[in-house]
Amino acid sequence: MAEPMHPWLQQFLQQIDSNSLAPASSLxxxxxxxxxxxxxxxxxxSRLLDLQSRLLQAKGQSFYTIGSAGHxxxxxxAAALRVTDPAxxxxxxxxxxxxxxxxxxxxxxxxxxxxxxxxxxxxxxSGGRHKVLGSLALNVPPQTSTIASQIxxxxxxxxxxxxxxxxGQSGNWPHDAIVMCSFGDASANHSTAQGAINAxxxxxxxxxxxxxxxVCEDNGLGISTPTPQGWIEQSLADRPELRYFAADGRDLAxxxxxxxxxxxxxxxxxxxxxxxxxTVRLFGHAGAxxxxxxxxxxLINAELELDPILASTASMLARGILSRPQLFxxxxxxxxxxxxxxxxxxxxxxxxxxxxxxxxxxxxxxxLPAPPLPPTAIRSALFEFDKHNLGxxxxxxxxxxxxxxxxxxxxxxxxxxxxxxxxKGGVYGVSQHLxxxxxxxxxxxxxxxxxxxxxxxxxxxxxxxxxxxxxQFLAYVHNAEDQIRGEAATLPFFxxxxxxxxxxxxxxxxxxxxxxxGHFHNDNSFAVFRDIPGIIxxxxxxxxxxxxxxxxxxQLAYEQKRLVIFLEPIALYMTRDLLAPGDGGWLYDYPLxxxxxxxxxxxxxxxxxPADQVSGQAPDQGPAATADLTIISYGNGYYLSRQAAVELAxxxxxxxxLDLRTLVPLHIDAIVAALADCRQVLIVDECxxxxxxxxxxxxxxxxxxxxxxxxxxxTAEDSxxxxxxxxxxxxxxxxxxxxxxxxxxxxxxxx
Length: 751
Hints:
Layout: H1 7-17, H2 33-58, H3 74-80, E1 87-88, H4 94-101, H5 109-117, H6 151-166, E2 179-184, H7 191-205, E3 212-218, E4 221-222, E5 225-226, H8 231-236, E6 243-248, H9 252-269, E7 273-278, H10 297-304, H11 308-318, H12 324-347, H13 354-358, H14 376-382, H15 396-410, E8 414-418, H16 434-438, E9 443-445, H17 450-462, E10 466-471, H18 482-488, H19 491-494, E11 503-509, H20 527-530, E12 536-538, H21 543-559, E13 563-569, E14 604-608, E15 629-633, H22 635-650, E16 655-659, E17 662-664, H23 668-675, E18 680-688, H24 693-704, E19 710-716, H25 734-744
Parallel strand pairs: 1-2, 2-3, 3-7, 6-7, 8-9, 8-10, 10-11, 11-13, 12-13, 15-16, 15-18, 18-19
Antiparallel strand pairs: 4-5, 12-17, 14-16
Helix pairs in contact: 2-4, 2-11, 2-12, 3-4, 3-9, 5-12, 6-7, 6-17, 15-21, 17-18, 22-25
């Protein structure tokens, strides 16, 4: 039985056969015959793939039919660029992808795209996880976004290309490459797009190279909402430091010429430009979209007459590149070829198990030796600025600062960036003196835009640098969380591990700041990170662990290309004392760079025996005698628990304290091992009762040893944190911990 033919293809072949195509206008003049034929072939291939996808969906073999119909002029943009120019494509870029494939002999774009349409595990980019346009060989990182969230990381990549040259790093893309990023006219209005374009202009205004070519493909519609006529030009043409170019997407010659001119400008000037490409959207937003519900039929039919493939086909005939019979046969043969390839692609294997699906979330990579530690003489000179403090116990912020100095000396590709991190040294001084030691190309102040900061991190990582991004306060990450959730964390998943963006995101957060508060600076919820597959969240409570865990974070980003959130408790940055003013109980010696790192997920264990004396320099110890009760906590909660444990020990209680350190993912086996045979467990969680880590701990411990543990918890209230002393009314306290332990341990105190 013959494969059904899509109505558009049927009509198109009839128009060719009856010679009823509209006469060619002046479009396409300026292209050679071979150039026009190649671009037309890419256009037609993309269109026929779109139609085939709809036929496959009708048979339950394809699952996502948003297509490129009407936007096929972007094939000429691909022809104007180099295959080594990274391209961040939006979902209507099928013709671009096919044209770029022709720049790499041996590419099989038809088969590859159909495998993606059919969600086959043979799909060479996503391994069957999504319909995406992407290829490692073609330098097309996969994008699934529909709201321009790929633009910040594209800008970050453009910045990273020239930064890697300044740093003497080879990079994954050549130093003369430019970055192309396409998006629609509706997406151009999104805050993500506006922020990213602004960031590129902001940098260019200061003569910082950002070789970025934005391509806005303007079809005048955002699903059903029209874009006002002239709005894109009015809103983007006069942006400072952004060169504006415009072309008619129906005219392949004009599009190619203008795109080549724009690319030349970006490549030679290393400055951003915008190519405004006028297009039409044919066949609705996607397969399920019924355009007649919101657009007049006459308008829909009028736009069908503006089909770019009709224009380029008419030019082919007018120039005699193919005769009508030759053209008819070429279209028919290409359609048949795609149908045959689709039959094969739809029969290829699919992902079957959870393990197969999840294998690309955080793939295990081969061991990569860390760079050698710098010689002693170099380290001595590096720490000359703080020599009066060396050899003395220090607070958490100081030990983090020293750790960053050592890491920067060891890893030459590390770059620290964020708001106020350079000369100011960060709001809390954690990055002090780094810019003096390593220069302005490695310690960079950014604009006040967390989306751009995180996009920059992704871009730097994809170029092969090792980014350490700083988010000034935990609450500030929420307006940009999609750069972590939807972009950074999904990149290895949607590329089957081929693309990665190993990075460390340092975030000052959690609560208990004295004299400074409000929920924007005392944010005690990191739940946003806990449900994102593949990321790691580390949180130190003291300076020694802070040094070790930050080294571990950088090692994970460098070797395993992991995305690591490093959560730094603000209230403990400068904390010196544990029990009384001047006792120095929370100052720690600096672990030198050759100190072994803890196993990931291994909690720190501290045993508080009755009448033990507390010393800040006798930190976390191994198990001793069986505890009456174990407190599990992290961050500020662990600090409060240590205070409470001293008073409880004086009352005769024997306690064990676990500092989790690794908050995501929880390594329950390691926690259970540290609990030993202790049955009574109290979880102290400074985050809110609803959605806090304590919920996961409760469940996981019960599942690990059903019926064994007697579990209790103390959490913050389900409240935002108010200003001033009122903050402590909604947060766990030392006294609450003491009272809860006494309530749980109703037996007489140990002798």
